[in-house]
């Protein structure tokens, strides 16, 4: 579908964009802190309560690209794309168990990034560098994909060219620079309101127009077997064989395990006020999961509505253009654009934190001052966004999508060091490094062997074929190497790195009013 | 909980005992977090078209139901575990 310029939609969308821009700059003064300190710029002083954390993590995890890509996948191949639902269900029990421990130890030792924690726990600079490097590698294409999400909706309003994208990103860069994590936190409240309204209207109004959900599922069930995915397999409304079951389950599990290893999600977790806030959020964040399930159904609605998108990513915009009046189209597209700005800001902050803490301060300027640290992080956030912009404007979108797929495989390889470290000091730093290298290599090879057409791999082993998500195979290899080598190194008595944490550091007070959990304002800004 | 923190610092044997016993009892609640993994990762269990609910094939509404069930289970653990 080609689009003519839609003035009404552009005005509504532009007005909402202007509003969040003002909010972004105002955020510097919200819960004022000394932004010349990285804890304040990059983690907003670690004092967000349950409500702000809910919006922030919601904006962080359920990105604009998700809203575009999940329905596109469901439109293309049906049930397999729906794995996003079990994925975002199964992630929260993990968050509930793991993240309060990471929060507590990070608070006690002033850790800002996952690589900081790895350094403190294992006393290993190389393992910490590997963690930081993986985080940067996985985050960068993710930022670029947010731009892809923005571009498809801008095009759907009939505006061609890259200039709106460039303007939006320059503005985003400016207020992220000045306000830090406070900007996406404040904007995420507006973003989520827009998204909830848009989706609730869409899943009531569009099925009403199409004759009900029964008709939608019937139409999709009839059409999907005629669709073919990138690997040539037909689509299906319901997974129908062992390979499909294996792929579905491992995609859900692997993605759930990987999600909270992403630096930007850890940034969101560490900015909260207490372990209790994180636990409570693990019980209420599934509201977004329910929403995501409804969004996934938009893909089936598009099939029933006989939408023929120019590219898979324009399934949702085309659906909205077909059913919504202009003004609501503008509202819905603003929701997606703002939904891209929030995670892009958090991701660039997380990348900046990683570079500053684990590369700049570690290798380039050891012992730099707090003010210098914060200044470098702010500048890095600009560089990261400029890089993502150039990537999307200059190179084909496919590269960003391929790299983001690989990013999921890569980031999961940091799990043994991070999650293992939260519970035991038994794992040896060299074994973890070797496991990481094995997992990264195997994962990358599996993805390139299939030319990035699928993130599911058929492993022929012991006379049978196992079909699973590449990241899960890579993680299995990683764990085998890590555990095996740790056992060997322990027998040999290889020296462990110094561990600066104690077991008590991982227990949070689990009480919001506990003075240990909420230090007075002026000391909160100074990391221990 | 103050006595749990003491338990960790090994200060006051009596306190430590009471703290760790209470803790072990409350840890059993974490088992409630296991069912969602079984219910959702065992795909053949629910890869079916029927029974339908409001026009939704079983495969779809079953997973939506787990969103709510998992949230409730997590909330129970949140209330019970100190």
Helix content of chain A: over 70%
So what's the oligomer here? heterodimer
- Tell me the number of strands of chain B: 0
Q: Which stretches of chain A are low in confidence, meaning pLDDT under 50 for 5 or more residues running? A: 511-528
- Amino- and carboxy-terminal Cα gap of chain B: 8 Å
- What does the radius of gyration of chain A come to? 23 Å
**Strand-residue fraction of chain A?**
under 5%
Q: Find the structural class of chain A using helix and strand composition.
A: mainly alpha
C-alpha-based Rg of chain B, rounded: 20 Å
Strand content of chain B: under 5%
Largest sheet of chain B: none
The biggest chain-chain interface is: A-B, 45 and 37 residues
Summarize it.
Chain A is mainly alpha-helical and 528 residues long. Helix content of chain A is 71%, strand content 2%. The N and C termini of chain A lie far apart (57 Å).
Summarize the helices and strands and which ones pair or pack:
The complex is a heterodimer of chains A (about 525) and B (about 80).
Chain A: H1 7-26, H2 38-43, H3 50-61, H4 64-77, H5 84-109, H6 114-122, H7 125-156, H8 163-179, H9 182-210, H10 213-223, H11 242-259, H12 263-270, H13 275-284, H14 286-304, H15 315-323, H16 326-364, H17 370-394, H18 397-412, H19 415-423, H20 429-449, E1 456-461, E2 464-469, H21 470-492, H22 521-524
Antiparallel strand pairs in A: 1-2
Helix pairs in contact in A: 1-8, 1-9, 1-16, 3-9, 3-12, 3-13, 3-16, 4-7, 4-14, 5-11, 5-13, 5-14, 6-7, 7-16, 7-17, 7-18, 8-17, 9-14, 9-16, 10-14, 11-18, 12-16, 14-15, 16-17, 18-21, 20-21
Chain B: H1 2-9, H2 13-27, H3 35-41, H4 58-80
Model description:
- With 528 residues, chain A is mainly α.
- Chain A contains 22 helices and 2 strands.
- In chain A, strand 1 and strand 2 form a beta hairpin.
- In chain A, helix 5 runs antiparallel to helix 14 and helix 16 packs across helix 17.
- By secondary structure, chain B is mainly alpha-helical.
- In chain B, helix 3 packs antiparallel against helix 4.
- The termini of chain B are close together.
- The N terminus of chain B is likely disordered.
- Classes of the chains: A mainly alpha (528), B mainly alpha (82).
- At the A-B interface, helix 5, helix 10, helix 11, helix 13 and helix 14 of A face helix 1, helix 3 and helix 4 of B.
